């Protein structure tokens, strides 16, 4: 049995343990989409592994592409869920509007990464594999930038490493950054690293991410602190400006309407 297969099986067991921990800790009540993503990931990885050994190469490429598309959609939903959970202390209405803005920004960012990012060595691949590589890179770039933005604003958002949202973003961000570096190394054989060794490094990095999440979620959930007044004022101001703009577009000339921000 190869090292890559051993690492893959270790990842399946580790992710199954993570799912059990999430359910035990009740994380599914706070981050249900993230919990569902973990269940999907362990199930789809098992399906892809079985398909690799029992179907034709063309059928496997189709299955792998479908799995990658669904995985990317779920990751996008997880990031929106994290953003909504972070902004929830501001009130349901404001958090919903801010989360919508985040979703639009991530969608635009992912689209830009899809069209403009260049995957090293992808030109020599089949069309389906080219799509897979492009989609994986676009998703990785989106996760990295989301993590950087969340970490950079963590002080204003009153987030610490004990907060579930930052733990989820950290795992995604670090894994995505490491996997992108490894993919770049694959296109430069002068480094003297074998293709199989680099594939094993990617699997090992994901396993390490799962271990990090297990260690993080095994600790008691800390109570969220209020978002800093500076960030509250900024978000409320943006929400008020957006509502005034919509009102002006619907009723030209009516600029004296009062703005009410839902803070429940």
The H/E string reads HHHHHHHHH
State the CATH class.
Mainly Alpha
**Mean pLDDT score:** 80
The secondary-structure class comes to mainly alpha
Oligomeric status: single chain
DSSP helical segment count = 9
CATH topology: Rhopdopsin 7-helix transmembrane proteins
Q: Gap between N and C termini, in Å?
A: 56 Å
Sheet having the most strands: none
Q: Portion of residues in helices?
A: over 70%
Q: At CATH's second level, what is the architecture?
A: Up-down Bundle
In total, the number of strands is 0
Question: Measured on Cα atoms, how large is the radius of gyration?
Answer: 21 Å
The share of residues in extended strands comes to: under 5%
Estimate the global geometry from the Cα principal axes: globular
- Poorly predicted residue ranges: 254-264
Whole-number tally of structural domains = 1
Your description of this structure?
With 264 residues, this protein is an all-alpha fold. The chain has one domain: Rhopdopsin 7-helix transmembrane proteins (Up-down Bundle), CATH 1.20.1070. The protein is 76% helix and 0% strand. It is built from nine helices and no strands. Helix 3 runs antiparallel to helix 4, helix 4 packs antiparallel against helix 5 and helix 6 crosses helix 7. The C terminus is likely disordered.
């Amino acid at each position: 049995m190869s090292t890559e297969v051993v690492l893959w099986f270790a990842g399946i067991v580790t992710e199954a343990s993570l799912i059990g921990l999430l359910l035990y800790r009740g994380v599914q009540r706070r981050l249900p989409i993230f919990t569902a993503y973990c269940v999907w990931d362990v199930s789809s990885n098992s399906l892809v592994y079985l398909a690799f050994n029992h179907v034709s190469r063309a059928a496997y490429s189709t299955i792998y592409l479908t799995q990658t598309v669904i995985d990317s959609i779920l990751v996008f939903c997880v990031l929106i869920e994290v953003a909504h959970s972070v902004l929830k202390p501001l009130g349901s209405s404001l958090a919903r509007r801010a989360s919508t803005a985040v979703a639009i920004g991530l969608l635009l960012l992912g689209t830009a990464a899809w069209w403009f990012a260049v995957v090293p060595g992808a030109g020599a691949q089949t069309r389906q594999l080219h799509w897979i590589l492009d989609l994986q890179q676009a998703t990785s770039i989106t996760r990295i930038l989301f993590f950087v933005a969340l970490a950079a604003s963590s002080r204003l958002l009153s987030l610490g490493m004990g907060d579930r949202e930052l733990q989820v973003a950290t795992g995604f961000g670090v894994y995505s950054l490491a996997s992108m570096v490894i993919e770049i190394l694959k296109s430069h054989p002068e480094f003297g690293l074998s293709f199989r060794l680099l594939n094993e490094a990617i699997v090992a990095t994901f396993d390490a991410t799962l271990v990090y999440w297990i260690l993080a979620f095994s600790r008691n959930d800390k109570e969220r602190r209020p978002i800093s007044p500076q960030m509250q004022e900024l978000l409320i101001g943006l929400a008020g400006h957006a509502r005034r703009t919509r009102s002006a577009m619907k009723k030209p000339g009516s600029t004296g309407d009062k703005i009410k921000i839902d803070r429940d």
